[in-house]
Automatic annotation (TrEMBL):
PANTHER family according to UniProt: EXTRACELLULAR TUNGSTATE BINDING PROTEIN
Extent of Polar residues compositional bias: 22-32, 45-58
Disordered, as annotated region: 20-58
One Pfam family here: PBP_like_2
Native organism taxonomy: Bacteria, Bacillati, Bacillota, Bacilli, Bacillales
Organism of provenance: Brevibacillus composti
Record keywords: Signal
Top-rank taxon: Bacteria
Protein name: Substrate-binding domain-containing protein
Residue stretches making up the PBP domain: 54-275
Amino acid sequence: MVILLSLFLAACSTASVGPAATSPSAQGNAPQSAAAGEAPPTGDANPSAQTGANASSAGQEIVLATTTSTQDSGLLDALLPHFEQSTGIKVKVIAVGTGQAIKLGEDGNADVVLVHSRKAEDEFVSKGFGINAHDVMYNQFYIVGPEQDPAGVKSAKKAAEAFAAIARSQALFISRGDDSGTDKKEKSIWKEAGITPEGDWYLSSGQGMGATLQMADEKGAYTLTDEATFLSRKMNLQVLMQGDQSLLNPYGIIQVKSTAKPAEAEKLIQFFVGAEGQKRIGEFGVDKYGKGLFVPAAQKR
């Protein structure tokens, strides 16, 4: 985590908010499967031509339970076709909040989880539900809101101060309220600020990040968002705070211990943390936004 924090602070010192205010419109966040995309095949991309270990996995399907930010940002659509073409393994994506994704793993309804709440991830492993855990990448959370900034968030130096200013002014705030990694982070910031948010100014969408951003944009409200989903949307909301240490947003990938397809699950994890996956993660978004939406940071836990 010290390494991640150093990289994060270095990245924040040079990052530009530029593209944040001009990105594509939000979509709903119902569980969905990764699209085939237009990823060019690398090497022998025909599953029927695979030999050895790959041949035994060809035609298998595994379930990846993940947070909505990896789906809404387009990251999985950019990565998974390469994995599927090179291994012959199909990946069914269930994109929900982190809490729900972890529950799918606990219930044996997923083979791999890719989420962003370190405390929940560690509990998943310590309770015996997960093995083979890795750090995989990180970005940051943003506090976003209307350009007029009625609560004065821009003048705050810390995320907790920004939230306190929103509560004092009773400016409209949209919470995800879905036990996602973003929702857990939001609740931790309110706790740090010593505030229990309640009242007409505090609304819960009960939906994923894309839908929550859309709601906040339509209402001219504040919200907490992950960097990647925000940058991949076109809206009027502005980034009002970024770079605070408490806004670091690391992602972890974990194999479900009870999976009936451990070899295939391991291959997916190794793709994400291996050289090819890490390279593609770092490159994702650069051509469109001038910066990567995620920072590769693979490390075995």
